[in-house]
Amino acid sequence: MDEAKISYCYIQPSELEDLFHSRCVFMCVIGGEVCVSGHDSGPVFEEQPSSLIYPEGLPEGKVTLNCQARASPAASYRWRVNGSEVLIGEHSHYTLVAGNLVINNPQHGRDSGSYQCLAVNRCGTIVSRAANLKFGYLRDFPLEGRSPQTAYEGTGTFLACQAPAHYPALSYRWILNEFPSFVQPDGGRWFVSQVTGNLYLANARTNDTGNYFCLTTINMDISTKSTFSKAVQLTVQPEATPRKSAPNIRVRFPSETYALAGHTTQLECFAYGNPTPKLRWRKVDGILPSKVGASADGPILTLPDLSFDDEGVYECEAYSSEGRDTHQGRVSVQGTALLKGLDAQSAALLRYKCAKVRAHLVLKGNGKWQVVYFTELVHAPDFRLNPVRKLVPAARGGQVKMECKPRAAPKPTLFWSRGTELLTNSSRVTVMPDGVLWIYNISRADEGKYTCFAENYLGKANSTGHLSVRDATKITLAPSNADINQGENVTLQCHASHDPTMDLTFTWSLNGVLLDLEEPNGHYHRIEGKENIGDLAIVNTQLSQAGIYTCSAQTVVDSAVASGRLVVRGPPGPPGGLVVKSVNETAVELRWSRGYDNHSPIGKYVIMGRSEHSHDWKKMRTDPANIEGNAESARVIDLRPWMDYEFQVIASNILGSGEPSMPSQPVRTKQAAPTVAPSGLGGGGGDRNELIITWTVSNVSL
């Protein structure tokens, strides 16, 4: 291609607003019809199409996408959807009214997509911003009932909404017992998450008992739809003295939140605790913007009209007379080139390049010209909003990650140094393409200042942080294996050493699932003591609590873990696979498979039965009379002929009797002649030619 000839055009600051709103590519055609300078003017948008959401399945509706431009001579209009020309004709469901596109009877599979308006006259063509037509829907909740929930007075709990499929996002409310009795905040005790729809309760009271319904609402551009769930029955069990508890944050906003400049973002935070915790927010690396208003003291922090000054780390603190809890997360603002944000009084003239392109690249063989206008906002690297962390703690023998995230356009070149030494990749040091520095197998010698340098063609910047190497956390007394009987108490020990300048916390998990040590009436309790002791007490231990217990000792820079196995011995589990064989008049044969012995050998089995005349289970006579623990079959004897029976098998060991097996299928014994003659024979009375005879039959029983 021949080298393009370059000339320059200038746009006055007063024209920036139009340029921003159009977000367009301008094409000026010279040749054919002549655009007369000073008389004609190319199209400029006065109204552009906007994205909208249309209710799926709405009958006989229509959508109008607006497009109007001023031009001399007047502009004509075309439309594109997903890059293809929209065909407007007599038999099309598209109609063009002035420049507006009307879509009749919109349908999801046919009409959803990205629409753009083209305004054309002899001076050029402008293309509008993209307007997305999407279809909204809200399905119904499942018809199945929901499981009831129980909470203890003074403890926190939540009810899950489990919203049905939908688009776009929902708003949530909860109903108590009947519409329109909505759940109210009640001084911060209740909270409805607008992210999950779940209903949270900081501390339960007995008068919270009731039926709760999750109400979901979807707001679209031309309609609103709501649906509500089946009832969740909440029962609050009273406590003689409701236990007080420190705040425990259970609704946590993400550790990283990304949002667009000019938009609104919300951060959610809510805590369990008794008394009800209060909430307050702060910006860790700056001043909380005044525009957050009253949300600074509530469960949802609202950041409207985001700017780059709003970037940073935000902290939610829950506090009460019993203590405090905090949670932090970073908000990153993604930029959009908002020309209207420039100061029109001080903005310099923006220079646009106007390139002459060979004819065969644009319109074949006509020798026409295409003029392309474009802008790009660029700036030198800047660390002011996101400097390297001033103090980065790390543990000896561990690894550390140091981030380098300056604002810059175009993307800068990033590199790190320690003092005057430029860092390059090695067995212990890795500099990632995105500027992240990793150091592995850390030693005291790695302590010191680390500087990230950023550079593009507009300038340079750097930011420095200090790596502080701390003592590694180590388990000094690991939990031992333990073997106990069901119902007994046990203590699992866990001691650790750590860097004295840092706080140490302990957590416990069972078979990889984190344990809740704050449940007041639970089986697990933390043993209070010295900071380096994290012993776990388990009270009234049940069979389900056997397994691998893992203690984790953690600081902000590292952690150490150790595990021990807890064996819980108890009565046997229920036998399985109970079947009835060889049925005759007075006996049946039963067969079963051994259940789990729960670490104590099965000593014997007992067979229980019931007939159609008795709903209570009774011990049956068997052959052999005493069924040993290694048996898997036995005969039940002394049954009644022609009677329906069900049977169960119960295993026992030295720790007691276990749960019975599932009942057998009902079985009927075979018929037989009576074995006992009637007794109490008598008679008399009656009318003429009639004799009444009476007798007594034996009682029918198992």
The percent of residues in helical segments reads under 10%
Share of β-strand residues: over 45%
Distance between the termini: 104 Å
Can you tell me the overall shape?
Answer: extended
**Sequence stretches where pLDDT stays below 50 over 5 or more residues:** 1-31, 337-360, 362-376
Number of helices: 3
- Rg from Cα: 39 Å
Largest pleated sheet: 8 strands, mixed
Organism: Astyanax mexicanus
Keywords: Cell membrane, Disulfide bond, Glycoprotein, Immunoglobulin domain, Membrane, Repeat, Signal
Domain Fibronectin type-III: 574-672
Domain Ig-like: 43-134, 142-229, 247-332, 381-468, 473-562
Description:
With 702 residues, the protein is mostly beta strands. The chain is built from three helices and 62 strands. The strands form 17 sheets. Strands 2, 4, 7, 8, 11, 12, 13 and 16 form an eight-stranded mixed beta sheet that branches. β35 (413-418) and β36 (421-422) form a beta hairpin. The longest helix has 7 residues, at 16-22. The protein is extended and about 135 Å long. The N and C termini lie far apart (104 Å). The model is unreliable at 1-31, 337-360 and 362-376 (pLDDT under 50).
